[in-house]
Amino acid sequence: MRRRTFFAAAPVLLAAACATQEPQGRAITVFFTEDSAQLGPEAQDVVKGVAERAKTMQGPVSVLGFAGPAGGVAYNRALSEARAQHVADLLVQFGVARDRIRIVPRGPVPFEAVATESRRVEIRIGA
Length: 127
Known about the structure:
The protein is 28% helix and 28% strand. The chain contains two helices and six strands, in the order E-E-E-H-E-H-E-E. It has helices at residues 41-55, 73-93; strands at residues 4-8, 17-21, 28-31, 61-67, 101-108, 120-125. The radius of gyration is 13 Å and the shape is globular.
């Protein structure tokens, strides 16, 4: 799968983010720094854009949270849920009805091609 990626710098204690923009119906992804469930301003702008798009579309908004495999399974499962919850809360803040949002914590996943790809939330509209 080919992705266009946008990077946004953030302080070390906050989450750095990049987003992938896919054709309609595909996932929009924001990435987090290690051990973080907070997004910086640039990533929040990406979520705001997704919220604007979601308000014009039908169907549920799925928010899938992921974490890398390093550390304990229980910790990473909770981290993936916290990441998904943070993004869901932002979507609501930006005007998406909470009852449309489905949080799906996926827990720890093996490192992808690049370790940071495992530390992500995928947002899917209508899925």
